[in-house]
From TrEMBL:
PANTHER family: PROTEASE HTPX, PROTEASE HTPX HOMOLOG. The chain crosses the membrane at residues 35-64, 70-91. This is M48 family metalloprotease. Binds 1 zinc ion per subunit.
Length: 318
């Protein structure tokens, strides 16, 4: 392997500047408070849902056993399903996984790009964070750290992946590249945003719980089409779900408002980490170059789309 080209960092770094600011800590406390409020609200709703389900199951069992007619059997089974559907609505989102998918990403290995992997490994050591689980290339003028989020990712360590846009690589020099990468790793470094990472996961999970309901809606709709009695019970199930969402949505808004303020502090701190290992001048110049490159790329794509309408493509596109 050729000699690694790795820019040196600033000679004088004030260690106290690398610690989260007072503003960050205040915003983090606010976010955690709203998350605790959400968890308490959710647990109360879950307990009420369990009690409702038990009542429905008891009533359904009584109808089936004490008044054994076709209509009462249908109604009894419907009540049991109603209770189960409410529980299903409350817990199914815990096991949903949010995948940050991008078909344009191309995974690369250390055998293919040993110098890049060595560069990233040295940078993760310098920022005191873990090496990415996988590294991908894309066409974007951007770089990001991403991972698959689930309910359990709030409590368990989640391996993170790194995406590097070739548009970014072609727009900045090696020192600026180090600054951009350091900013991304700064979000997850041991000196950085463990609390912010937790709140980010919680925010995504809560969003899924409130708005990712297509499977539940399909289940209820299919159930309602079986019989008129079940259709009435399906309406009850929908109304209960809407009531639960109404309560949770209010708490979710509080979390979002707090998290927006925290996100700003997270960006400031990630910039501080990047400046400490790559120099503030490289961070500033990289941002300027990225903005110009994004504009150029957008213009090129728009031009290509216009020519595509005329059945024309450039020679360097398949």
């Amino acid at each position: 392997m050729k000699e690694l080209l790795y820019p040196t960092g600033p000679v004088h770094v004030f260690a106290e500047k690398l610690q989260p600011s007072a503003g960050f800590r205040i915003q983090a406390i606010k976010v955690i408070s709203t998350i605790v409020l959400f968890l308490i609200t959710y647990l109360v709703l879950l307990a009420a849902s369990v009690a409702f389900a038990v009542l429905c199951c008891y009533a359904g069992y009584w109808l089936v056993t004490e008044i054994p007619r076709i209509i009462t059997i249908i109604a009894g089974l419907g009540l049991i399903v109603l209770g189960g559907s409410v529980i299903f609505f409350m817990i199914k989102f815990m096991f949903a996984v949010s995948k940050d998918g991008n078909d344009a990403r191309l995974e690369i290995t250390e055998n293919e790009q040993p110098r890049l992997f060595a560069f990233i490994r040295q940078l993760t050591n310098e920022t005191n964070t873990r090496f990415p689980r996988k590294i991908y290339l894309s066409t974007d003028v951007n770089a990001c750290v991403f991972y698959h989020s689930s309910f359990w990712s709030m409590f368990l360590p989640i391996p993170k992946n790194l995406e590097i846009g070739l548009g970014l690589v072609n727009s900045i020099n090696i020192s600026e590249f180090k600054a951009v990468m350091a900013h991304e790793f700064g979000h997850f470094s041991q000196r950085s945003m463990k609390l912010g990472s937790f709140t980010y996961n919680a925010n995504r999970i809560i969003h899924n719980m409130l708005y990712d309901n297509s499977s539940y809606a399909s289940f209820i709709q299919g159930w309602a089409e079986i019989h008129g009695v079940l259709a009435l019970l399906a309406i009850v199930a929908f109304k209960i779900a809407q009531g639960i969402q109404f309560v949770l949505r209010g708490v979710y808004k509080l979390i979002n408002l707090s998290y927006m303020a925290l996100s700003r502090e997270m960006e400031f701190h990630a910039d501080t980490i990047a400046a400490s290992v790559a120099g503030g001048n490289n961070l500033v110049s990289s941002l300027s170059r990225i903005e110009i490159a994004k504009g150029c790329m957008a213009s090129s794509i728009n031009y290509a789309n216009e020519r595509l309408k005329e059945n024309k493509v450039t020679s360097n596109l398949p």
